[in-house]
């Protein structure tokens, strides 16, 4: 029996835009064990959302998976017919999207909305749906579920909408929750409530979470394992303690160094320019990519992840690379 | 010369529709000293943006007074406000929406100068070019349009536009919340450098307590339109008194997995009191609103806390 709930191997995803092909995700491998929270961290455009959309096979129509495999519970998702995929989506894997406002149907009462999955996947009879909905609303922390049941999304605040999305996502008790920047638009106190809720659900049902974020603070609080993405590639991965104690890739160092931290009285924040990619090397190997980039095409030479210490991987160029001046 | 640049006394701004009145800012008093950065934190809906805009007189307050540089500006009309517009400038949150996509960067930067009738065409251009240099953008940005720039670069343009009139006072309303973390650090550093170089006084509004801590000298906490706590930053972060401030501070994710704390203080969200609270001085320039909590209780707790920190 495979102990990995999700395993992605050498995934490559590209997009066709006006006859040009752009590779958004390249050579991405990641795995999530049962009960784990895995963080995928990177900036906008690094390919983290595309990776998660590939898992659910919800890529935009001009995007396609070129290579690789994605197995969930031992089943290959990429070759799965749409009909079977429908059974998995929202049922065994569900997703909490970043934009709560755009993810809810404005003309439908939220109480009815959150039970759609139950109706479809679990074939819960109509008369029991309302009881289930009220229970879910209570689970995600509403003190007055009966009142919220009858409200429309625009009557709720941002944090409440995000909790509705969570209620919807956990309604079918999925084994894997993908949370795509679930708290980016929220205030700190609400962020904490939402993340605690996801964490509680995970522990309670022994589920797994793929947490997509750009905030290393959130990662430190909630994740077990961390993958750092840059320009469509994973550039470093390790467990959360190692990555904070001993980050190796300059990009990871830059991301950690750029968080303002009230406790250590920084005089100046480090920004990405304060780290050099080009000139530094690690045991004679050159870090890939050579420059800070959003673009996967800057990985011009073959590179791969190398184990620098047990269970700690960093991306280097395969061969000694000649330094080319970039003007 | 008076050390106070901005003084707001009992300031209120209400928004109303046909059925209800929303008290966005309710009885807020604060002073901003020359050369200082006052941070304002609070959640969405706490009135921090409205406070900034009211101090700038983009809104007319319902009650209260505002003094700028020793003169009252509470009731001035648009024409009389114009000289003050030059001295108070704003950096907006979203550089994707606050800059015109139709104008070139040069036109964006020169517009405030043109409106204030400053300089000749040539002088305005020189000024725009030197401003671009100051915020770290290449000179050829001058004839380019906004869509060619990234978020961080756009925010640099927003900063350049705010500073081109050489204001005395800048209100930065969530200037980095639309930016990625690594870019955020650059923009914050730039703002800090310019502030020191030009001796600016700032009101820095943000929901991110870590960012506010990095930028500010003193920090004001807003909650439901009221100012509930105000203190020098080290004092506030070390010794928060109001239960809401405590909740805010304990909710900041600590970027260190070794110090994960499952037993954090519960989040306290008190109800809004009927009347604006009074700020009470509790030592070390630390003020806290008094009618939301029992002042005796926290004095005892406060001494305990100070003891445990020494």
TrEMBL record, chain A:
Q: According to its UniProt record, which protein family does this protein belong to?
A: Belongs to the ABC transporter superfamily.
A cellular component term, taken from the record's GO annotations: plasma membrane
Write one Gene Ontology MF term. ATP hydrolysis activity
Q: How does it sit in the membrane?
A: Peripheral membrane protein
Please give the name of this protein: ABC transporter domain-containing protein
Q: Which GO terms describe its biological process?
A: peptide transport
What is its subcellular localisation? Cell membrane
| Cross-referenced SMART domains | AAA
Q: Could you tell me the keywords of this UniProt record? A: ATP-binding, Cell membrane, Membrane, Nucleotide-binding, Transport
Question: What's a Pfam family this protein contains?
Answer: ABC_tran
Indicate yes or no for the key word Membrane.
Answer: yes
Domain named ABC transporter: residues: 6-256
